[in-house]
Design brief:
Residues 223-384 form the DUF418 domain. It comes from Erythrobacter insulae. Keywords: Membrane, Transmembrane, Transmembrane helix. The chain crosses the membrane at residues 47-65, 77-95, 101-118, 125-146, 206-228, 240-260, 266-294, 315-338, 344-360. It holds the Pfam family DUF418. This protein is an all-alpha fold and 390 residues long. The chain has one domain (2-382). It has 16 helices and no strands. It has helices at residues 2-12, 30-42, 46-68, 73-93, 100-110, 118-148, 157-184, 187-197, 201-226, 235-262, 267-276, 279-296, 303-313, 315-330, 343-367, 372-382. Helix 6 crosses helix 7 (157-184) and helix 6 (118-148) runs antiparallel to helix 9 (201-226). The longest helix is centred in the middle third of the chain and has 31 residues, at 118-148. The protein is globular, with a radius of gyration of 21 Å. The two termini are 26 Å apart.
Amino acid sequence: MGILAANIVAFGQPFAAYMYPAAFLTEHGETSDWLLIAQFVLIDNKMRGLFTLLFGAGLYLFMERTWSRGGTRWRQMWRLFVLLIFGLIHFFFIWYGDILLYYALLGFLIVPCLKWTAKTQLVTGLLGYLVGAILYAAMLTLPYLAAETSMGESGPFTEMRQGTLDAVQVALKDGEVETALIKSGDFAGQIGHRFSEHWADPLGNVMLFSLETLPLMMLGVALYRFGFFSGGFASRKMRMWGWIGVSIGSAWFLALGIWLKSVGFSYYAMLAAFVGWSAIPQLMMVVGLAALMVEYSPGWTGWFAERVRAAGRAAFTNYLGTSIVMLFVFQAWGLGLFGQLNRPQLYIVTLLAWGLMLLWSKPWLDRYRYGPLEWLWRCMTYGKIFPLKR
């Protein structure tokens, strides 16, 4: 559900609008600016971070069960290859904001490390994340300084400034091409555009996000083995450090968001803030949120909690299913709303999609053992048909 809240702008507006509100095809007024800040504080990077942490934990959970049956890590590698195929289909034929493809690729690198000691995995994850934070800050601060401060007006930085500004125009031009294809209803043209112009984007995502994703996956493995997700830590400490992490991280993102508003949400300031200057507060929030959910979720009961849990058990189907639903909402051959909705209206679409997830997931799982795509992935992983109906 949180991933959709992060992605909805890129579904309903040009892809560049995700981080650059000037790319919106509708007005991005004061209300939208503050909603952007709210998303920046509460959603952006945190949902992906939680997903990455849990993806790592899931890799080890799967291997625990596989090892108990006498299996090997090759089963996990095959499982990730199947996920890679799902990701390729999602990226090229449904929506090129796919995350599964590069998670599968990076998962291949985690599998050989699963038999390390939990302590080694924890230290490796923390050190790797720290190195990544330093490198991200270094890589993304310089383009901001060259393109959007007076530093770019002097000496050797003038050429860099022009190059960085040209890169913005290239991204916006590509968005114009994609927008024209969507608005014309030329779905085949969109697919062709992805194959011709964006075929290397998944590899680019691997390179860009690997310094965050690999360490977080490793931390997920280590935390799972230490019992973080299953009551292995004292509740008082989990709650205390959870609230500390969320509070400090939120304060940092709020201050950074207000600064971004003061500079007009410029392109390279946004890029630097999203990726370059937020890694450590992001980790604090991600682990803090995970700790608080571990502690508070057992006491969360009732019909709504049951439906949220069911949506989580069908998360794979809900993730890919949402992309398909959004095709019908935004494509010209559907409702044709691409580029028509402002940020508040896009969040209304998000709420409606959440309602759809909550509406179907529990009744389905009351009757069937798995979500549809969860079942298909399981069958492909083991090469046999599992019973679906309860």
